[in-house]
Amino acid sequence: MAASVVVVGAGLGGLRAAESLRAAGFEGVITVVGDEPSMPYNRPPLSKEALSAGVHAAELEFRRKPSVADVNWQLGSPVVSSHLAARTLTLADGTQLAFDGLVIASGIRPRRLPIPGPEAGRHVLRTAHDAMSVRDYLAPGRSAVIMGAGFIGCEVAATARGLGSEVHVVAIDEQPMIRPLGAELGLGMRARHLKHGVDFHLGRTVQEFLGGDQVTSVLLDDGTELPASVVVEAVGSVCNVEWLEGNGLDLTDGVLVDQGMVVDFEVPIVAVGDVARHPNSLFGNIPRRIEHWNIPTETGRRAGASLAALLRGEQPDQGPFSAMPAFWSDQYHHKIQSFGMPGIATSSQLVEGSADEACIFEYSDDTGLVGVVGVDRTAELAPYRKQLLER
Amino acid sequence: MVTITVDMDKCQHYGQCCFEADDVFALNDDGQLEYVKEADESRRADIESAADVCPMQAITVE
Ligand SMILES: Cc1cc2nc3c(=O)[nH]c(=O)nc-3n(C[C@H](O)[C@H](O)[C@H](O)COP(=O)(O)OP(=O)(O)OC[C@H]3O[C@@H](n4cnc5c(N)ncnc54)[C@H](O)[C@@H]3O)c2cc1C
Ligand code: SF4
């Protein structure tokens, strides 16, 4: 009988892994299990144009290659546990699934901080459903408190200002997006947000949510009280790996895989996307998770090929994994584009323009150039990207 | 023959497609995307790759 594969997670990574299994000649049954009710859809617009215009998951769906037309999509119920050595999974609705090969594509979810006060009015932004529920509160006369000044927090701030809402950003960091962009460009981005009327409370934390049944204001650690029609919490992520516990896998930060995206286990298992802690030969082969949109596609391609090989009883390609991490962000029509891993750099240097206008920054560590970021200079980044590929 | 269509209302000129098939997609000096509408069948894999990596999912390949 032909082998069967189960993919856990119906996001971009799960879709690309299924497509890649087919491209690598796997002809068995593929079942993709997803806890969201929707077919795989594009998340980046959820903090940008879709949040602004109110778009549903169906309109953001990825085009699927004809090769995956026969895939079974089992949507609406999560996998809650697994017995990997026995090759079985259990869903929340009680369904048991058996597999010969497994793809772990369950991604991440937003981190929630234990803060006292009412729960109603607190939102996160990961799914289309989240975006739709936040959007109702972004309007003139309303006040949005955004916790976290990373990319998602800053994008929501920009979108909320565009919709006319008052916006307060509370973050422990000293500059917005300081980890991926460094302090100098972070300051430059802050200037852009200030110009659009965002109120920053940096170096601050939320101490308590105030209100009756619903949050109406937010109390900071310095005693400031901010009015809140809605709170959006964008303070990092947690990996969706609970369903894998008890099998002896290394789950310290996502799922550890090798350069072929293969999990070190007696059964054929691969992991892809945000949840996969994978080595990259461009950056010293240190296994890292990278929450960038191009990673599910790059890791998915590799993982599908590896799994197809394993299921044929063959050794997967042992060559290095060397995909270039790429990230973009849109804030007030400013386009930020990043290549490489600026977040691991120890220094940053302005090479073109100035931090509060169109500019390019280089990021380095003791091994040399590790990343480049351009603001409104997309077309000029190609030579820097090339230099990174030649590392 | 591969037929390529880019929905220019969706395209944000990120240029990700250019890295997959630079003979088909390019950003011009003003940072705007330019592309050829037809390519040889032998280019299909790279062009489909370009469609996969487009953040706006603006590229259709037939
Ligand atoms: C609001 C927002 C904006 C973003 N903007 C950008 C951007 O501008 N640029 C950029 O490069 N990246 C951006 N990203 C990141 C990018 O979208 C992610 O890197 C990408 O979606 C990861 O894909 P994935 O398939 O690994 O995970 P996901 O897309 O999260 O897919 C995982 C799926 O698995 C499901 N799942 C989880 N656990 C289980 C279970 N136990 N059983 C079944 N199903 C399960 C989840 O519900 C989810 O549907 C953004 C992300 C968000 C949320
Ligand atoms: S990758 Fe997509 S959005 Fe970017 S330039 Fe190409 S078609 Fe346009």
UniProtKB/TrEMBL annotation, chain B:
Record GO terms (molecular function): iron-sulfur cluster binding; metal ion binding
This protein's UniProt keywords: Electron transport, Iron, Iron-sulfur, Metal-binding, Transport
Pfam families named among the record's database cross-references: Fer4_15
SUPFAM superfamilies: 4Fe-4S ferredoxins
Protein name: Unannotated protein
